[in-house]
């Protein structure tokens, strides 16, 4: 917005081209060396992480030799005297439950910082429904590039925890296990024999160390050593690698994914426009990057969230695997694929987090800090004070209680006779 | 007890045996234009009683039967005296003639609400002549800039017309145009107000001891009344300036019965900048950027009889800013063209109909029906077409628009009841129906492709926005201007407001009391207590006045803001041609709103109430004003010593519960206005202002912040595999809000007017210089890391955007 203002001033008030800048000494108290505690602690989790650092002019300095104490409901349960593994990283190993009051104290170089939070209750009645859909979105602001993609539109419902103010965060993870049996067939090739000046037919498969001079020879070798199938035309197809295992084209892990919430009133709270909208140039547009929300619009009643999760059967960071899957499928006869089986599992894991009020405001502030709007306007408004619940220092220590709901969108792991339906793929 | 009874009996007997009273009433008007004069005085030299005209120029004075010597006067007008023998209630309409030079007027009666001799305090009349003679940015005389020169008023960002009164916020000023509240009072991001000086008749500014009829804001009232229109002859004027041109036209539709007044102002900078942009190309795209605004005022005034008058007024003001990009190419295969246009448009529409009725010489009423709408729209229209002999034709239209509006429908009735020479009672009600429509937006996508018709689209997407909010506001009020003794005047009053929004309603009783004690004629001591409440707030993310700033009503969780103000003042008129005043105040704000830490950038939406906290504010100060209102040299000197703080609870998430100074807590504030009339041809206007630095939040360190798992795919699995801790980053560390006092600002503006009487008109050539000695003021300040020979150091970067700026305006008055 500041740039916009400058443009306006420049255009309207010609003399502002003579505006000038001066740097003055900033006479203000030094605020370096303040002990900073940060951590998201999870209810019921075996271990939790706390980061300790000191404020500094250039880069915050990690603190690895602090004494850290953890108290649950007033009782000292754990004391750490140094960081674990990495600088500034302290691993706490005492589990706590919803409703427990957890206090963390840090002592370092004469400083004592502490923070306290109560573990929120868990949401019990989360449920969800989904359907596939195609949506068109602009790829980014000020761009004329639109994308049409497949999504799973998910409606999530749950009951607000209490009549008082409650705060939540919806994190969505995708479990993506994409496996294809990698079948190949005996290939033919001609080798040139320099001595006889003749071409010799050879049979082989991908592994060039095994060459056969008759088809039968190759056939028998495969029959004795690999899983194989015989196609209608009599050709033998064999498993080229991994034997009875499968090729893995995606990482079989749960991974957080950036979902869209364009049509959700609750998640888009305080967000005037999406950051990919061109109107962003004129409106305060701050994306709810961390997907936090309050019960402001559904206090003590049922909430329904509407989100769109990108339908991607491949790892979001690994576009290559998708391409490979395509190639494989296109190369194989349909009946053979049916017989061989292709295994895809795609799950959406909804992680509804009940969070404390302080975490809610902390994450909202981080939404702003990471926004272009802040970057462009902070010179006008002054620096932002990040919310802190740490006494004697700064930072944020807050507790999250998670509840999960898993949607299995696609699971072709067992039906070997079916082929993968490629319709869900969209470019 | 016995003595008290005796006093009461004596007072009662005075009434029983009192002489027969008669009431004279009527309008005091300008002899040339028949424009009613607000705040004119009528005074009987025999009985020593007087009255003042109200905002419609009406007066009522009750006197003993018999002979009287009535003197009618008004600042800038010659006095008229009538010796009469009164037997019955009499209507006397008086016309006063303007004098060329401001002569001294001996103030002999109470002024109604404002001025040194009024029982009210903290209020000032701002005559149009003063506004016209206050040099300003680019020669644009401005109501708000003149008010900024008054004691107790702080300016916002440099060059802006925003006012912050006695430690109050920018949204705590009730700004009225002919009785209707104005929500957006400025053009061009706050640099100019919407009030065209030529259309303005009278401005009254209140900062404490508010008359009971004013409600809805806690810090000040700026009551702007527009001209009714000349009943006698047609007059017009045209002004041409660097930024804008203006015109006014007024005259009779039927002499002495009906008149009209129209005025307009527009800027034409887009025309001036168009040649630059016509040749400008950015990244191969032809870019055009433009801005314009206009104001249009119209008013019709009809006099049915001496008892009934009707005023219908209309105001429309619009700003528009746009950026257009065009890109096209052609080759042997085909052509490509895209056009993109962003726009931002905002404006007010205000209309009022007022009916004045004189029920009796003692009872006057004004009924007002008002309509007020503020609307803002932001849009993007994108259109591209591609023709290709190989790929076929493609076209696409993308339209996106975001709207926000507020609409008020109001009805009020104000009664002035001049019960007797000791009591003037004002009472009435005011009802406003608010319709807030904070956010609506839609996007339309229409695409066609001859090659891929399956991709054709014609879609309208309506985004869910904040819900419409309806609110109803009712105020009842009464006050009595009670002349207890000649030296002691009281003004007790109250206002009772009821604000209903959603399922919640708030009621607020606001007692108001002021007292004036005059031991001698030239000296007055005043004291007052005022309670005000406010049920709407302006949400803003930047210190600049943006059209996207949004008014929202209080909610079920956000209570009305209230302010209690205690004031005491000394006023002296013993020095010839001078008025001196010294006022002290202490103001307590309750339920004052501040964004919670880290929340000030959230823009606006339905859940704004979650982002703010309610706290307390205090403001205290001493204000001195020496004002010379007559003679060849006029002007004033004002000085303010003030302090304003905010204080929030520890669990409010505002500054850890620690008190902090208000952003515009400027300790010292000096304003000097000097107007010198050398002769009929030349006059000089000079202003000089000094403000101590405002407060800003700066950082000189960095702290670690931590992102949740999404940021890095962080999970326990990641920890075990040593993938942490990239989910931390750094940001500015701030200890306290407003932790740094910025450098002071001082500024001189000079304007010279050259008058020349032509055959048919008067020509006025105004030459102005803003920031005459080119003071390098801190218009923007922020902290930055600077590399000094390999050593990084935090510095305060000061940016001056408004240096010395000369300008001129030519005005023709016909």
Supply the number of structural domains of chain B. Answer: 2
Number of strands of chain A: 25
Provide a count of the helices of chain B: 6
Instruction: Name the average pLDDT of chain B.
Output: 83
Broad shape of chain A: elongated
Terminus-to-terminus distance of chain A: 35 Å
CATH superfamily name of the largest domain in chain B? TonB-dependent receptor, beta-barrel domain
The CATH architecture of the largest domain in chain B would be Beta Barrel
Give a nutshell description of this structure:
The complex is a heterodimer of chains A (427) and B (814). Chain A is an alpha+beta fold.
Describe this structure in words.
The complex is a heterodimer of chains A (427) and B (814). Chain A folds into 3 domains: 35-118, Immunoglobulin-like (Sandwich), CATH 2.60.40; 127-179 and 248-411, no CATH class; 183-245, no CATH class. Chain A is 15% helix and 40% strand. Chain A is an alpha+beta fold and 427 residues long. Chain A is built from 6 helices and 25 strands. Chain A is elongated. In chain A, strands 2, 3, 4, 7, 12, 19, 20, 21, 23 and 25 form a 10-stranded mixed beta sheet that branches. A 5-stranded antiparallel beta sheet of chain A has the order 6-5-8-9-24, with no helix packed on it. A 3-stranded antiparallel beta sheet of chain A has the order 10-11-22, with no helix packed on it. Chain B is mainly β and 814 residues long. Chain B has a 22-stranded antiparallel barrel. In chain B, a hairpin with a 4-residue loop joins strand 40 and strand 41 (682-691). The termini of chain B are far apart. In chain B, 49% of the residues are buried. The chains are: A alpha+beta (427), B mainly beta (814). At the A-B interface, helix 1, strand 1, strand 2, strand 3 and strand 20 of A face strand 22, strand 24, strand 25, strand 27 and strand 28 of B. Strand 1 of chain A pairs antiparallel with strand 49 of chain B.
């Amino acid at each position: 917005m500041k740039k916009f203002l400058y443009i306006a001033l420049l255009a309207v008030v010609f003399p502002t081209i003579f505006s000038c800048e001066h740097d003055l000494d900033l006479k203000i108290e030094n605020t370096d060396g303040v002990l900073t505690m940060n951590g998201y602690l999870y209810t019921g989790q075996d271990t939790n992480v706390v980061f300790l650092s000191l404020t500094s002019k250039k880069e915050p300095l990690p603190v690895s030799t602090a004494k850290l104490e953890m108290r649950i409901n007033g009782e000292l349960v754990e004391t750490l005297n140094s960081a674990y593994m990495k600088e500034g990283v302290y691993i706490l190993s005492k589990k706590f439950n919803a409703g427990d009051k957890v206090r963390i104290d840090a002592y370092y170089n004469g400083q004592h910082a502490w923070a306290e939070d109560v573990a929120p209750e868990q949401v019990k009645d989360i449920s969800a429904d989904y359907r596939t859909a195609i949506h068109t979105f602009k790829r980014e602001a000020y761009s004329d590039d639109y994308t049409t993609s497949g999504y799973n539109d998910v409606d999530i419902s749950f009951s607000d925890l209490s009549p008082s103010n409650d705060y939540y965060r919806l994190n969505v993870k995708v479990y993506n296990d994409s496996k294809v049996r990698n079948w190949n067939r005996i290939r033919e090739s001609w080798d040139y024999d320099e001595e006889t000046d003749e071409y010799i037919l050879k049979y082989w498969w991908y592994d060039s160390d095994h060459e056969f001079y008759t088809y039968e020879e190759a056939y028998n070798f495969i029959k004795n050593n690999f899983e194989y199938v015989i196609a209608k035309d009599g050709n033998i197809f064999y498993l080229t690698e991994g034997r009875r295992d499968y090729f893995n084209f995606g990482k079989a892990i749960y991974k957080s994914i950036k979902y869209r919430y364009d049509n959700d009133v609750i998640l888009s709270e305080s967000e005037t426009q999406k950051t990919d909208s061109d109107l962003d140039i004129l409106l305060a547009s701050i994306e709810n990057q961390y997907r936090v929300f309050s019960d402001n619009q559904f206090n003590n009643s049922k909430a329904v969230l509407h989100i769109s999760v990108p339908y991607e059967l491949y790892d979001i960071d690994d576009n290559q695997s998708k391409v490979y899957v395509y190639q494989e499928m296109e190369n194989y006869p349909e009946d053979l694929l049916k017989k061989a089986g292709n295994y895809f599992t795609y799950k959406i894991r909804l992680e509804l987090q009940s969070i404390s009020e302080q975490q809610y405001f902390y994450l909202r502030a981080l939404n702003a800090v990471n926004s272009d709007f802040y970057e462009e306007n902070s010179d006008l408004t002054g620096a932002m004070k990040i919310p802190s619940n740490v006494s004697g220092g700064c930072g944020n220590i807050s507790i999250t209680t998670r509840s999960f709901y898993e949607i299995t969108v696609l699971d072709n792991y067992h039906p070997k006779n079916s082929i993968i339906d490629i319709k869900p793929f969209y470019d | 007890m016995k003595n008290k009874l005796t006093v009461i009996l004596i007072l009662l007997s005075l009434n029983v045996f009192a002489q027969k009273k008669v009431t004279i009433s009527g309008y005091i008007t300008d002899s040339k234009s028949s424009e009613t004069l607000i705040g004119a005085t009528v005074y009987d030299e025999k009985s020593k009683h007087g009255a003042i005209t109200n905002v419609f120029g009406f007066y009522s004075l009750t006197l003993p039967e018999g002979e009287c010597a009535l003197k009618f006067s008004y600042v800038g007008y010659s006095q008229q005296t009538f010796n009469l023998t009164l037997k019955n209630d009499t209507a006397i309409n008086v016309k006063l003639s303007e004098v060329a030079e401001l002569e001294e007027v001996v103030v002999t009666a109470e002024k109604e609400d404002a001025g040194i001799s009024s029982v009210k305090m903290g209020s000032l009349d701002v005559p149009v002549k003063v506004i016209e003679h206050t040099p300003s940015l680019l020669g644009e005389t401005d109501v708000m800039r003149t008010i900024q020169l008054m004691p107790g008023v702080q300016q916002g960002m440099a060059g802006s017309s925003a006012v912050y009164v006695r430690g109050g916020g920018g949204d705590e000023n009730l700004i009225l145009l002919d009785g209707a509240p104005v929500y957006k009072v400025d053009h061009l991001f706050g640099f100019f107000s919407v009030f065209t000086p030529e259309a303005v008749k009278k401005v009254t500014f209140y900062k404490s001891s508010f008359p009971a009829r004013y409600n809805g804001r806690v810090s000040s009232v700026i009551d702007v009344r527009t001209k009714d229109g000349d009943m006698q002859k047609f007059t017009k004027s045209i002004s041409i300036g660097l930024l804008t041109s203006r015109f006014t036209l007024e005259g009779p539709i039927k002499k002495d019965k009906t008149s009209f007044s129209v005025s307009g102002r527009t800027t034409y900078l887009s025309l001036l900048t168009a040649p630059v942009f016509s040749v400008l190309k950015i990244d191969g795209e032809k870019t055009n950027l433009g801005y314009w605004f206009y104001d249009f005022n119209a008013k019709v005034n009809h006099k049915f009889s001496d008892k009934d008058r009707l005023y219908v007024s209309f105001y429309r003001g619009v700003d528009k800013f746009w950026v257009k990009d065009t890109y096209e190419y052609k080759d042997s295969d085909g052509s490509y063209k895209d056009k993109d246009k962003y726009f931002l448009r905002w404006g007010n529409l205000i209309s009022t109909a007022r009916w004045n009725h004189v029920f009796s010489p003692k009872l006057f009423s004004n009924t007002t029906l008002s309509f007020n709408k503020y609307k803002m729209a932001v849009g993007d229209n994108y259109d591209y077409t591609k023709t290709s002999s190989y790929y076929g034709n493609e076209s696409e239209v993308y339209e996106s628009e975001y709207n926000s509006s507020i609409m008020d429908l109001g009805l009020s009735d104000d009664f002035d009841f001049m019960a007797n020479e000791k009591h003037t009672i004002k009472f009435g009600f005011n009802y406003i129906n608010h319709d807030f429509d904070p956010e609506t937006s839609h996007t339309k996508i229409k695409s066609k492709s001859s090659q891929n018709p399956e991709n054709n689209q014609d879609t309208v997407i309506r985004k869910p926005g904040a819900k419409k909010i309806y609110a109803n506001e009712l105020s009842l009020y009464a006050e009595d201007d009670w002349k207890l003794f000649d030296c002691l005047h009281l003004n007790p009053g109250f206002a009772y407001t009821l604000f209903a929004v959603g399922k919640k309603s708030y009621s607020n009783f606001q007692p108001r009391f002021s007292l004036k004690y005059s031991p001698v004629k030239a000296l007055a001591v005043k004291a007052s207590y005022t309670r005000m409440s406010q049920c709407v707030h302006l949400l803003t993310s930047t210190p600049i006045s943006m059209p996207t700033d949004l008014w929202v009503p209080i909610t079920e969780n956000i209570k009305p803001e209230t302010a209690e103000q205690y004031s005491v003042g000394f006023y002296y008129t013993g020095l010839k041609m001078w008025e001196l005043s010294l006022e002290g105040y202490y103001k307590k704000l309750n339920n004052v709103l501040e964004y919670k830490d880290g929340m000030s950038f959230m823009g606006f939406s339905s859940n704004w109430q979650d982002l703010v906290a309610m706290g307390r504010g205090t403001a205290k100060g001493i204000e001195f004003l020496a004002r010379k209102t007559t003679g060849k040299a006029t002007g004033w000197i004002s000085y303010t010593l003030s302090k304003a703080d905010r204080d929030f609870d520890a669990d409010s998430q505002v500054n850890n519960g620690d008190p902090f100074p208000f952003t515009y807590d400027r300790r010292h504030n000096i304003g000097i206005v000097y107007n010198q009339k050398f002769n009929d041809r030349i006059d000089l206007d000079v202003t000089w202002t000094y403000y101590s630095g405002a407060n800003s939040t700066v950082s000189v360190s960095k702290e670690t912040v931590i992102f949740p798992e999404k940021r890095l795919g962080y999970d326990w699995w990641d920890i075990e595999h040593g993938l942490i801790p990239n989910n931390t980053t750094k940001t500015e560390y701030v200890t306290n809000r407003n932790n740094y006092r910025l450098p002071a600002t001082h500024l001189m503006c000079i304007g010279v007017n050259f008058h020349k009487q032509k055959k048919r008109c008067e020509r006025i050539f105004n030459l102005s210089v803003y920031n005459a000695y080119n003071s390098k003021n801190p218009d923007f300040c922020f902290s930055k890391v600077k590399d000094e020979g390999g050593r990084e150091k935090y510095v305060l970067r000061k940016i001056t955007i408004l240096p010395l700026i000369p300008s001129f305006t030519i005005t023709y008055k016909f």
